[in-house]
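This section describes the prediction task in plain terms. A model, or a person checking by hand, is given the sequence of a single protein chain and must write out its three-dimensional structure as a string of tokens. No templates, partner chains or ligands are provided. The sample shown here is typical of the held-out split.
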Amino acid sequence: MLRIQRLAVATLSVLGLTGYAHLAHADAALGAPAPACQVSIANAGADGVMIPSNAPALLIVETTTSGPLTVNAELISSTERLPFAAPSNDVNGLRILPLPSNTPGAYSVELGANCGTMEQQPYEIPLTLTAPVDFPTTVGTLVHVPKNPPTGVETIDLEPSEGLRAFLPATQLKLSVDGATGGARNGGASSKKISFTANTGSACVENGALHREKRVVRVSLAAAIAGVSTSPAPATLDVEVDCGAIKWTSLTEIPGESTSGSASSTPGSSSSSGGGCSAAPVTGLSGTASAVAALALASLVARRRRR
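The expected answer:
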């Protein structure tokens, strides 16, 4: 067991050095640090943003590393320039830029920012306000795309409702598994399908122990539209998880199990030739972070079984 603990410490040290090297390499490749103050319209593509004219606000993303961020924005049409009100947080906690006009038409948004000694030069983003669309009452439908063999990390597709599809550029989405919410993501451009990753394998660990029976988890997707107080009803889906069929990462031998092979950071890709299993992936972690978490949990299981 002492060897396992030393291995965990060594693994953390190597990962720390590797992460530092990757960050240093990325900075060198870019040639300069990230901008100190920056603001952008979420989900703006090459053609800008298209949303219904009754949308009360745009969803924005702000970044600052030096002092308070001041945003300068104007809505430009062929005949006038209308200033935006200062960005604010709406009732859903979204960072929004209230629209100064709700008249359908073609516009551009001139967007700039400053934070003390640093400044983001103004630039224009095309904006199209279409005819009004009723706000959605439902998110849409979730579809499970199973993997064979199962890995504990499943693909969940959202087929947005017609109403939500129109407001996707101003929408934030949150996926949860049995109430555990992962990170939020912006809706993106209007599309017929949006894919998510759900760590359903976390249901296979209970009170620090890994089990093999089948479990059913509830996957839920919630949506919030910028500046809209009432959110559409979330979409839900029950997904069966066959814990015994998942080839868990093998990191150490567990008494009572026949286990061999090397560690893998990807659930389901272990080279184990036995029937044993080790730690399940941790919700919200991926890659090397999952491997470290799995190593710590495998050590805990081994200690408990030897007592």
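For orientation: DSSP finds three helices and 18 strands in the chain.
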